[in-house]
Design goal:
rod-shaped, mainly alpha
């Protein structure tokens, strides 16, 4: 049986650089999505709080001009 030969050092360094770039991009996307999630969790909590503080009306949110975004 013959052993498979590993890629040369240049190829390994290129793969390592690609992996580091991918890790950085993934980290940035994670941070951004976490910030967005926190923003909308706070917004949803404030909507829930407002709903419990105010009496329920028969008007729909579209007819009052309010929106969620």
């Amino acid at each position: 049986m013959t052993m498979k030969q590993l890629p040369d050092e240049k190829t390994l360094l290129e793969i390592l650089e690609l992996a580091r770039d991918f890790e950085q991009s993934t980290r940035e996307m994670c941070e951004m999505s976490t910030a967005i999630a926190h923003k909308y969790q706070k917004r949803a909590a404030s909507f829930r709080q407002a709903a419990t503080d105010q009496p329920v009306t028969q008007e729909s949110p579209a007819s009052t001009g309010s929106h969620f975004l």
